[in-house]
Amino acid sequence: MKDIFPGGPGLELQVRALLSENGAAGECLAGFEPRSSQIEMSAGVARALESGQRLVVQAGTGVGKSLAYLLPAAIWACDTEKHIVVATYTRALQTQLVEKDLPLVRRILDRSGRNFSYALLMGAENYLCVRRLAGAAAAGAELFDSAGGAKLLDSLKRHAGSACTGLRNAIPFPVPAALWERVRREADLCLKKRCPLRERCLYMKDLHQAMLADVLVVNQHLYFAGLPVPAYHAVIFDEAHNVEDTAAEFLGFSVSWFRVGKLLAELYTPAGGGRGLVTRITNRPDDWRRGFETAVLSAGKAADNFFLSCARNAGLKITAVSAESKSARVTRPDLAEDVLSEPLLRLAEQLGSVMETAATEEEETILAAYKNRLLEVVSSVRAFLKPQGRDSVYWLETRMLRGAPEIELRKTLLDVSRELDERLFSRALPVVLTSATLAVDGSFESLRSALGINSCAELILPSPFDYRANAVLYSASSLPDPGPDSEAFETRSLARIIEIIRVVPGGVFVLFTSWEFLRRAKNFITGRVTGREVFVQGEMLADDLLRSFRRSGNGVLLATETFWQGVDVPGSNLACVIITKLPFASPGSPVEAGRQEYLASKGVNVFSAHTLPRAVIKFHQGFGRLIRKSSDYGAVAVLDPRIITRSYGVKFINSVPECAYTSELAGLADFFEERSSRPPLKAQPGSGPDTFLSTPDDGGEDFRSAEYDGPSVWRDTPFL
């Protein structure tokens, strides 16, 4: 073992020293400044790793939590010759960890002579398969109708010949989705040791590095699906407020109209004289192909009939192109006649009949894979039509996908606590969960109950940002209560949104809890807001929408669900976040309705134990969109008066950092005028958002600046 200090102090002392004023972190990162919250978090992670404990940490924006957990994790892994998995929710955070934070950790550990290694591993569909690439090149005429496609294949082949990784995002040119689906790795199509191109396999290169890495970065979906590495000795979940929903998604199932249609098209499509797997099967009876093609077309018609019948019988219609999805819960068996299973079973049987005479091992593997895919669809369809168990909800969703209607059948597990306890928390390994939004009113009880954590150490650490000086909370407490008088609330809120926009000098997010209210706001605002661009979620892709909003400088973005978290717009490009309603989940949502019924059946107070905590966490996430670095300033405007008038409003207030407060528009205008007249703050190096784009990392605990002598803070007397 190698230690920073002679005599070998414990891990906690080491990380405290490394992150201190004269520590190695400052020597390796220009402008580094010690942060007490970062040091305490790093020390807590060190204690958890050395003791084998579970630890839950809420760390506010700007703490630098990535470095806080990576540094002790890296030292522990190197010195004990163990392996640690870091599981994130977003790709953006994965990118930051691998490209920014882990290289910094390596530089720090290099100073002590440690040979630290790390790797990134993603799902199979993110990797280029050299064998499938070779097959696509051989079938180029089937894939492309132009010479451009053939040139793209040639470029891919040249890239594969020199690439160090098979990841799609490492390819230095764009690859169209249709081509990528033909050349990407698919686990059930992999020949493994039998592959003739195994020595050139890019995925195996990445997997080999992953197996050797001290720290392995993955996403939460891959973690719950099962890691293709033999062993790990600790796991750290970042963006941990998503763990419950990710686990519930993995432990359920879904089958969609699009997925079934795509599967059938891969088997056979009449276009271009006939394409698909059927054309590549060699040793088959003369009449087999004709019968198989007919069976595929018949199954396609059955799929159309089945999915449309499910939607119709559930009372759902697809009538217009919209970003909004519609859903319905299914509680009775046999929602629709199962006209799909038998055609798919016949196809599976036909594929099985030619497996024994397959010309090559590759052909046999492909036939087996497609047979199993058909059987998996049948299993899901039959399970959906026979709902079972109080701890699951069955539901379907309709939406537009690539300009076409999509219908998806789903099963969602309502309580993941037992599964997570058995698979994760009862195991003898350290587990760390961290995010900026985990606690409700200073307690992790809601999170612990939802995830099945019986015992753990806990830390709540404040943001280093001065919210009292740089943020104001505006409450429209005079508006009607949206509960008993929703129509009056929405009407007056729309006028108030216009008034707020007029006093805010920078960009504005307007966050909604329903698509209906968002559409109404769009119609009202159009023509009433001048000198600004208005952007509406659903009118372009989310990434394009956000880029356009940033470029505008003072735009207005109307958005719902996905923009409450995972969006990072530093500076005056986002100067105000308007929260139209407190974000209580709709009781009409199938999953929410199912969860409430399930909890009520167990004698749980649903509102206090489930509904309110989830709303508080989401509110905290929405609030956290505002201040993303130390030089940011702005306002959060809450139009829902219940934050003041209802007794539970204090839980929302206590969840966010302490800041100035006003209930008057004049006070809001004065805040921006006063704040803009001050010299601009210099952003602290490394004190910006812990992630790049789309990382849910919000807010923080109360922070009081002893040097600040500005307006009264929110919990004392009004700002103005």
Describe the structure.
By secondary structure, this protein is α/β, with parallel strands linked by helices. It has 27 helices and 18 strands. The strands form three sheets. It has a seven-stranded parallel sheet with strand order 3-4-2-5-10-1-11, with helices on both faces. The longest helix has 26 residues.
Radius of gyration: 27 Å
Strand arrangement, largest sheet?
A: 3-4-2-5-10-1-11
Query: How widely separated are the two ends?
Result: 60 Å
Inertia-based shape: globular
Query: Which structural class best describes the helix and strand composition?
Result: alpha/beta
Oligomer: single chain
Annotation keywords:
720 residues, alpha/beta, 7-stranded parallel β-sheet, globular, disordered N terminus, disordered C terminus
Task: Describe the SSE topology.
Elements: H1 11-18, H2 24-28, H3 36-51, E1 54-59, H4 65-80, E2 84-88, H5 91-110, E3 118-120, H6 130-138, H7 140-143, H8 147-162, H9 177-183, H10 202-212, E4 215-219, H11 220-225, E5 234-237, H12 243-251, E6 253-256, H13 257-267, H14 288-313, E7 326-330, H15 341-355, H16 361-384, E8 392-401, E9 404-413, H17 417-425, E10 431-435, H18 445-451, E11 457-461, H19 467-470, E12 471-475, H20 486-503, E13 508-511, H21 515-525, E14 534-536, H22 542-552, E15 556-559, E16 576-579, H23 590-601, H24 606-623, E17 634-638, H25 642-645, H26 649-654, E18 660-662, H27 665-677
Parallel strand pairs: 1-10, 1-11, 2-4, 2-5, 3-4, 5-10, 12-17, 12-18, 13-15, 13-16, 14-15, 16-17
Antiparallel strand pairs: 6-9, 7-8, 8-9
